[in-house]
Design a protein that fits this description.
Length: about 325
């Protein structure tokens, strides 16, 4: 029996669970951000154990200082990993679309690799390349779980009339790609200790361009330049939608949220500088960056789906037009 939204009860609960996993992934990103923001990455020097204890039996009374942030991050990561196993198995059992089943498998593979990278990060004393990869893969895992939540939704299965807008799809896709590159630049800045290489904002050492350059300044300034590019792309996408697709409320709501999140992100970035990298503000900056990426991804997926385009392996039903009736022959 189908629900009022057009999904069977099993599929509806599967969709809700996919949304829950995506939401928990945001919580995991927040926990990871708190570890880096408080410099707690080596507070627990062993892995997968915690000071020789099994991760799940480590005494709560010993979770003090940086151990609290790092061990909490590990517990949340393990929980999300277990939830992802359930999600992958559930997706394989209830989904008729082959590519969606493999998307669930990709989520599981990503979270396993993410756990391994996290362990390597600790065992090799936070090498920047591995730490940046760990941060970048976290965002990919979030995008995979979010995509699974989107494509199992009633709106995806029963889209509105198509929107054939190549410019919109191109803008949305470019925006999502630019946001991800910007997140990688931010991770590079954090893990190379370049966050305060330029200590003022919006100027750089009192100038539009830094008067002095070194690798840290270059990384920091690249992140600022990336923020300007991302903001311009988001405003271009929003302007196009507001002007040409104002009646598509599902797209307008998404792009409005995207504009809001990027405005918050710019403000948080400024306060990171002005506060001297306050741990709470710095962590919020990381989490809100994930929300910018996720919202841009949802918009991109909807623009492609609204165009009647479905990934390979799934046929999109097309309306059948009845041929005109032949005029009866006159006697």
């Amino acid at each position: 029996m189908a629900t009022s939204h057009g999904l069977s009860p099993g599929s509806a609960w599967h969709h809700r669970y996919a949304k829950l996993v995506a939401a928990c992934t945001v919580l995991l990103i927040a926990a990871g951000a708190s570890v880096t923001s408080t410099n707690s990455g080596l507070s627990v020097p062993d892995w997968p154990t915690t000071y020789g204890w099994n991760m799940f039996t480590f005494p709560l009374g010993k979770m003090v200082g940086g151990i609290r942030y790092e061990h909490t991050h590990r517990l949340i990561a393990s929980t999300v990993g277990f939830m992802t196993i359930i999600l992958a198995v559930w997706t394989w059992r209830v989904e008729s679309r082959r590519w969606v089943r493999w998307l669930g498998v990709a989520c599981l593979g990503a979270v396993i690799l993410q756990g391994v990278l996290g362990g390597i990060t600790v065992l090799f004393f936070l090498p920047p390349a591995v730490s940046i990869g760990h941060a970048g893969l976290a965002q990919i895992f979030f995008c995979l779980t979010l995509t699974l939540a989107v494509v199992t939704s009633p709106r995806w299965r029963d889209p509105q009339s198509p929107v054939d807008d190549r410019l919109l799809r191109g803008l949305a896709t470019a925006t999502t790609a630019a946001v991800y590159v910007q997140i990688l630049l931010g991770a590079t800045m954090r893990h190379t200790n370049s966050g305060l290489a330029i200590p003022d904002f919006p100027l750089a050492f009192g100038h539009l361009l830094p008067p002095v350059w070194n690798p840290h300044v270059a990384i920091h300034f690249a992140h600022r330049a990336g923020a300007a590019i991302v903001t311009a792309l988001i405003l271009a996408t929003a302007g196009h939608l507001w002007h040409h697709r104002a009646r598509r409320r599902e797209l307008i709501r998404t792009v409005n949220a995207l504009v809001f999140f990027v405005a918050v992100q710019i403000a948080l970035g400024a306060f990171v500088i002005w506060s001297g990298k306050d741990p709470v503000i710095n962590s919020l900056h990381v989490v809100n960056g994930a929300l910018v990426l996720g919202t841009s991804l949802v918009l991109t997926l909807r623009t492609w789906r609204s165009a009647g385009l479905e990934p390979v392996g799934v046929r999109v039903p097309r309306p059948q037009v009845n041929p005109p009736l032949r005029a009866e022959a006159r006697p």
